Design the sequence.
């Protein structure tokens, strides 16, 4: 099966395993007609992705993914159709990456206190983002595996890095309404990512979406690899009811999440081109 789009992916600039250019070329080779690059807390991969899209003949939507705090609940918001080189948003993202760096150092200190011989340089060696990159827990996990302190990536999260792990330090998150405002101020659309993850009842999700919509939220990520057919239908109905747009993507990370293919998820994801067209209509209105 070919065709379709993918509006949620990660490159080496944050915690994916493919460079922005290779990711875009892969999307083209897989037959997708559009792909969004949505790295965590950084837009540093966008110029390379956009250039690769022009070269390969596939539409690239410049994006980002932010972790935000919404009335005590931690959520992910994807921004789409950002400028390749944003204005004030770039400064906000730089601040988030600074606090990410401090958090990485704090987690390494906790690991060392637990007798684990891993340094911040070991962690940064796992990250490919360079200047403007957003290293985080996935890179710490890889360093722990490489140095033999965990046998698997998942095991590193269970023992050390997950929210109940010995070295876990919570991430400082911007307020949801502020973060949505940053994305909108750049002319982008704001999408609530992977709603299944928040473990809310449909009624509570609806309440949350209404508050986020008041803050400027444009769309809900309805199509996602972990969403069952029933969930997809429920989220679609909720989006219609609240007059929110519909988005969809695989959350592709390459080798870090080997079960997820770009544009296809676990094999049965398919985000129609009509989703892209409808979002563009919202963008223009
Ligand atoms: P960070 O932004 O540094 O907190 O890292 C978050 C990323 O770590 C997520 O996007 C996931 O890819 C990964 N992650 C978080 N929790 C787990 C977990 N329990 N098991 C595996 N990966 C996880
Ligand atoms: Zn990620
Ligand atoms: Fe996410
Ligand atoms: Fe993601």
Sequence:
């Amino acid at each position: 099966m070919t065709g379709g789009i993918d509006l949620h992916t990660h490159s080496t600039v944050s915690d994916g395993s493919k460079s922005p250019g290779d990711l875009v070329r892969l999307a083209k080779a897989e037959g997708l007609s559009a792909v969004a690059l949505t790295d965590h807390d950084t837009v540093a991969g966008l110029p390379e992705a956009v250039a690769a899209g022009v070269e390969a003949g596939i539409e690239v939507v410049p994006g980002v993914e932010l972790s935000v705090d919404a009335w005590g609940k931690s959520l992910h918001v994807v921004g789409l159709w950002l400028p390749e080189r944003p204005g004030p948003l770039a400064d906000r993202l730089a601040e988030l990456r600074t606090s990410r760096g401090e958090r990485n150092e704090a987690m390494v200190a906790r690991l060392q206190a637990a007798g684990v011989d891993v340094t911040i340089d070991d962690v940064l060696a796992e990250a490919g983002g360079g200047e403007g990159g957003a290293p985080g827990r996935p890179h710490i996990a890889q360093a722990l595996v490489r140095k033999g302190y965990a046998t698997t990536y998942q095991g590193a999260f269970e023992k050390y890095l997950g929210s109940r792990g010995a070295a876990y330090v919570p991430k400082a998150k911007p307020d949801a309404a502020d973060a949505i405002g940053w994305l909108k101020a750049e002319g982008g659309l704001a999408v609530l990512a992977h709603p299944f993850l928040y473990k809310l009842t449909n009624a509570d999700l609806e309440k949350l979406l209404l508050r986020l919509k008041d803050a400027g939220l444009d769309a809900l990520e309805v199509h996602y690899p972990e969403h069952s057919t029933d969930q997809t239908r429920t989220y679609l109905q909720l989006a219609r009811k609240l007059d929110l747009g519909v988005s969809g993507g695989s959350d592709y990370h390459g080798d870090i999440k080997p079960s997820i293919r770009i544009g296809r998820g676990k094999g049965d994801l398919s985000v129609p081109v009509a989703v892209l067209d409808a979002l563009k209509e919202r963008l223009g209105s």
Q: What stands out?
A: Residues 88-113 form the longest helix (26 residues).
